[in-house]
Write a structure and sequence with these properties.
Blueprint lengths: L3 E4 L2 E4 L4 E7 L9 E6 L6 E6 L6 E3 L7 E6 L4 E6 L8 E8 L11 E4 L3 E6 L1
Parallel strand pairs: 2-11
Antiparallel strand pairs: 1-3, 3-8, 4-5, 4-9, 5-6, 7-8, 9-10, 9-11
């Protein structure tokens, strides 16, 4: 059973930075793409960023492009989301997810395992 545990969320002022981390269990972490999604109150869960199994390909949502970056460390079974220049509209619960394949994917349905989420709140 795959377990994903996010950390690093919190309260930050607009313009600030946070780094989210996701630790994954299991020995096959390096075989699968990983992604970050977020869900604000009353809204659908939306794609934020994805990274391929090797780390060579990434996708970033237009809404956060230039401010967020995704990275992974296959030796440590972790994936990170560096968030800079945060805005109040970035406030949401952020979820780490493991894809069913190695290719990075923006489609929520392509992700089989999800973490519990970590709250990010950006004050104006």
């Amino acid at each position: 059973q795959v377990q994903l545990v996010e950390s690093g969320g919190g309260l930050v002022q607009a313009g600030g930075s946070l780094r989210l981390s996701c630790a994954a269990s299991g020995r096959t972490f390096s075989s699968y793409a990983m992604g970050w999604f977020r869900q604000a109150p009353g809204k659908e869960r939306e794609f934020v960023a994805a990274i391929s199994s090797t780390g060579r390909s990434t996708y970033i949502a237009d809404s956060v492009k230039g401010r967020f970056t995704i990275s992974r460390d296959n030796a440590k079974n972790t994936v990170a989301l560096q968030m800079n220049s945060l805005k109040p509209e970035d406030t949401a619960v952020y979820y780490c997810a493991r894809a069913q394949y190695g290719n990075a994917n923006v489609n929520r349905d392509e992700y089989a395992y999800w973490g519990q989420g970590t709250q990010v709140t950006v004050s104006s």
